[in-house]
Write a structure and sequence with these properties.
404 residues, alpha+beta, Dna Ligase, domain 1, D-amino Acid Aminotransferase, Chain A, domain 1, eight-stranded antiparallel β-sheet, globular
Length: 404
């Protein structure tokens, strides 16, 4: 009798899941994709698809039990993380963390409180579910402030507010992007150097892999706080890098983290202190894990697939880079109709590894306010840091989106 294939449920259906499906198939794993949008691209490549909302944890659990899955993942899909953790806990399946830990990490208000209660560096912050209560607390904050949904990713619904008169509009914007209709207000932390992040991997509670990156931004975009790209390796000071590793390991110890991938956003501020801004038990968006398989010598997508169904892990260690890399998030600076993408021919030949365009001429596109307005991605490689810096200082000189 043939051995039963392991079954892996993937929540969501975006393009980010394609390399996960490929890795799972290499290991003979049966892949099930789940969301409420049957036209999503990942469903064409999975072995079966089910139309269930990924934020309905009870519906996802019922389906998972019916299908007798061996693992569940919400890879680079922020809305499904809590449901994935819930199903894993109820069914005794592998997952990065407990359901309670996922709830803390996925709620910006709860996460800020957890950090403060445990002595981490944390901005002055409070969570709210209505504008009236927030407006009563304006004297609590050191202005300017940032207003965010507690439960969205990709910079959706995020606004910097410089004076209280502009707070109601920012709150309304945050609530529009919050599935739970909760938002957080926190002091705006002036950063020293770039905003940064880390695509990291934990094995049996021990932080083994840290791919720290720097973010870059398009100051001409509608939302200048939405990252328009990432680069590796980070130019972060080694002392701060070690501080972030120490903070992450302490956080993982407190939350009893097991094995899996985490996406981290962090920054060093003008007060000299390093801050963990977000830590999520999933891969990052913008295809971060994919480019790292080009850039370094650890396949963290394969490691995550193996961890999710209880297979032995490949070797996971700190990455050794083979050059300087960047992801450029293709986007339009204004609302309009997509016409074309222009890439300098010499630049294309020297530095473009691959590009993935998600729109076609004639498609209506929105100005860039967050990851959900991305038009695609381009992977870039450079031989020197100087070449990389030259690109980051003026990306539009080399790659531009034409709209009309």
């Amino acid at each position: 009798m043939a051995e039963r294939k392991k079954k892996l449920m993937l929540l969501g259906g975006l393009r980010y899941l394609l390399p996960v499906i490929e890795a799972a198939h290499r290991h003979g794993i049966h892949v099930i994709t789940v969301d409420y949008l049957p036209g999503n691209i990942a469903h064409r490549y999975s072995d079966e698809y089910h139309n269930v909302s990924i934020i309905d944890k009870e519906a996802v659990l019922a389906l998972a039990q019916k299908l007798q899955i061996d693992g569940i993942m919400s890879f680079a899909v922020d809305p499904g993380v809590v449901a994935a953790a819930y199903v894993a806990e109820k069914m005794g399946l592998p997952f990065q963390c407990s359901y309670e830990a996922a709830c803390i990490l996925q709620d910006k208000s709860r996460f800020r409180k957890f950090l403060a209660d445990n002595g981490f560096n944390v901005p002055n912050a409070r969570g709210f579910d209505n504008a009236e209560e927030a407006l009563k607390d304006i004297d609590y904050f050191n202005w300017p402030v940032i207003v965010k949904p507690v439960d969205s990713a990709g910079s959706k619904g995020v606004t910097r507010v410089d004076e209280p008169a502009n707070l109601p509009a920012a709150i309304a914007h945050a609530l529009d992007s919050s599935p739970s209709k909760h938002f957080i207000i926190e002091d705006f932390l002036e950063k020293k150097g770039p905003s940064m992040g880390d695509e990291c991997f934990v094995v049996d509670g021990v932080l083994k892999y840290n791919a720290f990156y720097d973010q870059f931004f398009d100051n001409e975009a509608i939302n200048p706080y939405a990252p328009s790209g990432e680069l590796w390796p980070s130019a972060m000071d080694k002392a701060h890098e070690q501080d972030f590793k120490d903070q992450l390991q302490r956080l993982f110890d407190l939350l009893h983290i097991s094995t899996g991938i985490f996406n981290v956003e962090c920054r060093v501020c003008t007060n000299g202190k390093p801050y963990l801004m977000e830590v999520s038990p999933r891969a990052g968006g913008n295809r971060l894990a994919e480019i790292l398989n080009y850039a370094a010598d650890v396949d963290i997508i394969e490691a995550e697939v193996c961890a999710s169904v209880g297979l032995p892990l490949p070797d996971v260690h700190e990455p050794n880079y083979n050059g300087y890399y960047a992801i450029n998030v293709l986007h339009s600076e204004k609302n309009g109709t997509f016409k074309d993408i222009c890439i300098d021919a010499n630049f294309d030949k020297a530095h473009v590894i691959e590009h993935d365009l998600w729109v076609k001429p004639g498609d209506v596109v929105s100005g860039f306010t967050g990851a959900n307005q991305s038009l695609g991605t381009i992977f870039l490689r450079f031989d020197t840091r100087e070449q990389l810096d030259q690109f980051v200082q003026a990306p539009n000189r080399f790659i531009s989106i034409i709209t009309e």
